[in-house]
Specification:
heterodimer; A: 360 residues; alpha+beta; Rossmann fold; OB fold (Dihydrolipoamide Acetyltransferase, E2P); 5-stranded antiparallel sheet; 21 strands; 23% helix; B: 286 residues; mainly alpha; MetI-like fold; 2 domains; 13 helices; 0% strand; globular
């Protein structure tokens, strides 16, 4: 069982605290993605799990062992680096077999496992090449191969796709997902790309400034973000967030429009709030995702239309702020066109203005 | 597009001629020394000068080794052995210590790092000769005058800061990720260094080694002060044996100069591949 548990884990550099006592439990064979903006502490957290950074406080367990003091080699983990970190002076075969050789495995066993990994990742033709003669995608696969040959308890991925172009990134995302389905192992994956997080993760850990903001399945963090940061970070295009004040049970926007609040919103009269709704919940009549939802009709002028083929992103204003709507099954829309938008009232998010915390 | 395609023919020729003249100026003195080493004394001293060699001979080499009846030999073998022992020992120690120092500067954070590094570099700014008098006094008190050990210590002190500076640069160019990947693959920190970082820094170390060796091998000023007899005299100091009060044995001196040049050339050829890779390391993206 390779469960990973972080308890009150702290990282300090001198007096500067980077990671502020985070708690996290990753189940056996679970694929967990740590996501957040640059400098949020996600990579530092991963490196602490790997043993590449000492921890300044708290406990890290892998399986039933406390690994705080163990060097990386004793943790039975594998890691794929952003830079791939392939050994430039070794062939692909030597790169793949390096860890096994260090572990003192026999030649036959090394060959068997290298061939097995090469077959899984389609590296058979490349085994005798040096890393400098490989493309970015091939290097990425070798890095993953090096991780899987050792049959580790935990795979760690540190932004492995960020050096690839968009198309290759999409392909490799699928390969990583397939790989996880094939070699069931606990995975902790760091990225700043929320699309990667949503598509790969069993659970997502959203971090900001060394704190965990929310842990949940992709649908949980998408549908029920705990605060405005998570709401704005997850989802593309991001959630629209508009300031409002609670007036007679409704949210009164800056331009005087009143939006009925969900019945379960924990609000009091006069409370400043932030109203959130995803572009999918704000669409021209007849082009919305949930046609049967309770909706508020709003006539708005389109400022910009971005046609994407199957949908068009429409930019307009509401409550004095720029907002985005998503038009499904689109028809051509011109800037300046007046459209009847529907705002899905069942999918409204309500946050406290001061703390940003959800009020639902 | 290559640079050549935008040059006109006359420009190309001008560059070639310029390079030829520059090379001539650089190579001619060395070539003349080698030539003199293989010419009879009578031809070298002839007036008017004989520019094109008429005879080539190994007489001069036999002469300095005392293999001719007409002249007394010099302890060239002793000088050669002294030079080898002193240069090789100081180079090996400088590389071993300098490599560790360079690695530490490149990879670790510690208090006073910048000041220490600056200190090492400042030590390079002092001309060696300026140290000769204090060194002479110190060495004479310590009984190190006219010993190989004395000279080895001096050359180590000269070479170690330079080696640290050079290897620091090479280790900095090797991504830390590689060492970390090796540690995750099961290596200790030492194994990660030895199996991954060291092979990658080999070209840099080869460059550092050849610089250190040549510095020790060719050094004259300090060696001439600190050595006295065949117990420690090196080849460059031995060259002065060919000068007497009123005469200079040019052919003998040239023959000995060739013996000084040959090992340096051989070593340079052996590590040439690494040396070029080392010197161009920074410009090549791995």
């Amino acid at each position: 069982m390779a469960e990973v548990r972080l308890e009150k884990v702290v990282k300090r550099y001198g007096k500067l605290e980077i990671v502020h006592g985070i708690d996290l439990a990753v189940a056996h064979n679970e694929f967990v993605v740590l996501v957040g903006p640059s400098g949020c502490g996600k990579s530092t957290t991963l490196r602490m799990i790997a043993g590449l950074e000492e921890i300044s406080g708290g406990t890290i367990r892998i399986g039933d062992r406390v690994v705080n003091e163990l060097p990386p080699r004793s943790r039975n983990i594998s890691m794929v680096f952003q830079s791939y970190a392939l050994y430039p002076h070794m062939s692909v075969r030597e790169n793949l077999g390096f860890g096994l050789k260090i572990a003192g495995q026999g030649e036959d066993e090394i060959k068997k496992r290298v061939d097995e990994a090469a077959e899984i990742l389609g590296l058979g033709e490349l085994l005798d090449r040096l890393p400098q003669h490989l493309s970015g995608g091939q290097r990425q696969r070798v890095a993953m191969g090096r991780a899987i040959v050792r049959h580790p308890d935990v795979f760690l991925f540190d932004e492995p796709l960020s050096n690839l172009d968009a198309k290759l990134r999409g392909q490799m995302r699928v390969e990583i997902k397939k790989l996880h389905q094939r070699v069931k192992t606990t995975v902790i994956y760091v990225t700043h790309d929320q699309v990667e997080a949503m598509t790969l993760a069993d659970r997502i850990v959203i971090m900001r400034d060394g704190h965990v903001e929310q842990v949940g399945t992709p649908s949980e963090v998408f549908e029920r973000p705990v605060n405005t940061f998570v709401a704005g970070f997850i989802g593309s295009p991001p959630m629209n967030l508009i300031e409002a004040v609670v007036t007679t049970g409704k949210a009164r926007l800056a331009d005087g429009i009143e939006v009925p609040l969900p019945p379960d919103a924990r609000v009091s009269e006069g409370l400043p709030i932030v109203l959130g709704f995803r572009p999918e919940s704000f669409a021209p009549r007849g082009h919305s995702l949930h046609a049967d939802a309770r909706a508020l009709s709003l006539s708005r002028t389109v400022v910009i239309a971005e046609p994407l083929g199957t949908e068009t992103i429409l930019f307009t204003t509401l409550g004095g702020k720029d907002v985005q709507g998503k038009m499904l099954a689109p028809r051509p829309v011109s800037p300046g066109e007046q459209l009847e938008f529907t705002l899905d009232l069942d999918r409204l998010h309500v946050f406290d203005h001061a703390s940003g915390v959800t009020l639902r | 597009m290559s640079a050549g395609s935008i040059e006109r023919p006359w420009q190309r020729w001008a560059i070639r001629i310029g390079v030829f003249i520059a090379m001539l100026i650089l190579v001619l003195p060395g070539a003349w020394v080698v030539l003199t080493a293989f010419r009879p004394n009578i031809e070298v001293l002839a007036r008017p000068a004989v520019w094109i060699p008429q005879n080539l001979t190994l007489h001069n080499f036999l002469g300095i080794f005392g293999r001719l009846d007409t002249q007394q030999g010099l302890p060239v073998a002793n000088y050669f052995i002294n030079s080898m022992v002193i240069s090789v020992t100081s180079t090996v120690v400088a590389i071993a210590v300098g490599m560790m120092g360079g690695y530490a500067f490149a990879r670790y954070r510690f208090r006073g790092k910048a000041a220490l590094f600056l200190g090492f570099m400042l030590s390079r700014t002092v001309p060696g000769v300026a140290l000769s008098l204090p060194l002479f006094i110190l060495w004479s008190r310590l009984g190190l005058i006219d010993t190989s050990v004395g000279l080895i210590i001096v050359y180590m002190a000269v070479n170690i800061p330079f080696t640290i500076w050079l290897t620091d640069g090479f280790f900095r160019q090797i991504p830390v990720d590689l060492s970390e990947a090796a540690q995750i693959d099961g290596c200790t920190r030492w194994q990660a260094f030895w199996k991954v970082e060291f092979p990658l820094a080999r070209s840099g170390l080869a460059s550092a080694a050849i610089f250190a060796f040549l510095t020790s091998w060719n050094e004259y000023a300090l060696a001439s002060q600190l050595t006295r007899t065949t117990a420690s005299k090196t080849m460059p100091v031995g060259l002065m044996d060919f000068t007497a009060q009123f005469t200079v044995d040019w052919t003998g001196m040239s023959a000995m100069a060739v013996l000084i040049i040959v090992p340096a050339l051989v070593l340079t050829f052996i590590v040439q591949k690494h040396l070029i890779a080392g010197l161009t390391f920074g410009g090549v993206k791995g």
